From TrEMBL:
Keywords associated with the record: Membrane, Transmembrane, Transmembrane helix
One Pfam family it belongs to: EMC6_arch
InterPro entries: EMC6-arch
Keyword Transmembrane helix applies: yes
Sequence intervals crossing the membrane: 14-35, 47-65, 77-98
The protein, known as: Uncharacterized protein
Amino acid sequence: MSDDSGITGHTRSVVVTTITCLAGIAAGVVSAMYVGTDVAAAESTTLVLVMGAFVLVQYPLYKVIGVGDFGVKDNLYVAFLTFTLWFISYTVLATSTVQLGV
């Protein structure tokens, strides 16, 4: 199963999963740096905006790589996996009392 970009189905899946996971972790770290890790910061809606930005930034990257033909299921996968990794990484940083600052 190969498309015009020469990326097979399995390679496409690995690329999308890797980028999505790294984007989720990066979103968690950026959220911790930009918003903070204290209780007041954890209640901020800016955290969700940072995570949403990381979801949206992935799509132009996928087009550049040549993996840009996404259906509804693929879009839900990217959003869910990015959210999950963001949530886990931010929660670990917030509960470990790490101080990340700009």
